[in-house]
Amino acid sequence: MTEHWIALTDLPATGREFSFADQSMWQEGWRSFGMEMVLHRPLEATFTVTPHRDGFLIRGTLCGAVRTPCHRCAEDAILIVEHTIEEFEAVADALENEGEISHLRPLDRGFALDVAGMLWEQFILALPAKILCTESCQGLCPICGANKNIESCSCQAETQLSQALRSRGLSTP
C-alpha cells in the first residue's frame, strides 16, 4: 500500500487544512486488496489537522463515488462516498509502537502523518456492510443463477432454513 507522509511541524493552534486528490492511491489499494472497484467520481479528501498536547485531531470529509459489483446480483452498483472524518492520532501510539496502529511517525522536530494510510482506513470505514445496486435488489436465483431483478424463473428454491424446519416437522411462514 502506498504511503504519503506530510510533516506536521509548525502547525498553528487553529490547525491547517490539507486536500488530497491523488486517485492512483485508491486504484493501487483496490488492486492490492483484490477489490473490484472503479472510480465513478474522483475521491477527494479535505481535512484539518489540529495539534493537541498529546496528539493531533483530524477532521474533514472524504467524498466521491465508485462503481463496484452488487453483493446480491453482481451487476454494477454506484457507491456514493460521503464520509465524515474525525480521528485522533495519539503521539504515545507513534512512540510506543505497541498495540494501537498509528499513522504518525516521529521526525527530528515534530511528527509526520501517513495521509494515504489514514485515508484508506477512512475509505474502508465508509463502505457499507452490504453493497447493493438498489435497496430492493432481489439477487440471483440460487438454483439457475437468473438475475431476479431482470427475469423471473420457475425454480422453486427452498432455503436451507426452510429445509431444516421442514425436516424437524416445523412449518415455515
Give a verbal description of the structure.
The protein is an alpha+beta fold and 173 residues long. The chain is built from four helices and seven strands. Strand 3 and strand 4 form a beta hairpin.
Mean pLDDT: 90
**Helix count from the secondary structure assignment:** 4
Order of helices and strands: EEHEEEHEEHH
Number of domains: 2
**Oligomer classification:** single chain
Using brief descriptors, characterize the structure shown.
single chain; alpha+beta; 4 helices; 7 strands; elongated
List the helices and strands and how they pair.
Layout: E1 5-7, E2 16-20, H1 23-32, E3 38-52, E4 55-69, E5 76-90, H2 91-96, E6 104-106, E7 111-114, H3 115-126, H4 160-167
Antiparallel strand pairs: 1-7, 2-3, 3-4, 4-5, 6-7
Summarize the structure.
The chain is built from four helices and seven strands; from the N terminus they run ββαβββαββαα.
